[in-house]
Amino acid sequence: MVLVSIRVAVASNDGKYVNQHFGHAQQFLIFDVDLDGAYEFLELRKNVLSCKGGESNENERMETLKIIKDCDAVVVSRIGQGAANFLVSHGIKPYMIPDFIDNALEKLTKD
User: For burial by CB atoms within 10 Å, which of 9, 33, 38, 63 has the most?
Assistant: First the structure.
């Protein structure tokens, strides 16, 4: 089976720019992205912050995972190594691409 698209969670508070740190993301915009670069917005999912005051909380991180568990990748402005390792261990590839969402999704297809 050939993978023709991926599901991507984008951390953005304005719907235009990737501008949220993974642990501080209040919401994720969910997209299906074709490998030819075309994409479709599916929905907005509210999130529970997993990092408060510089401290990560494992319970909240698991809640975030439940919200994006059907995604193949997550695009954020920043992510700590612990959170990145956590995502990878659950089959989600993290990307730090602080850019316009259009540009960030295009960059994913070239990775």
Answer: 9
By CB neighbour count within 10 A (0-12 exposed, 13-18 middle, 19+ buried), where does 99 fall? middle
**CATH number where 60 lies:** 3.30.420.130
Residue 2 lies in a domain: no
Instruction: Name every residue whose Cβ is closer than 8 Å to that of residue 108 and which is 6 or more positions away in sequence.
Output: 6, 8, 33, 73, 75, 95, 97
Q: How far is CA 69 from CA 17, 28, 33, 57, 63, in A?
A: 22, 12, 16, 18, 10
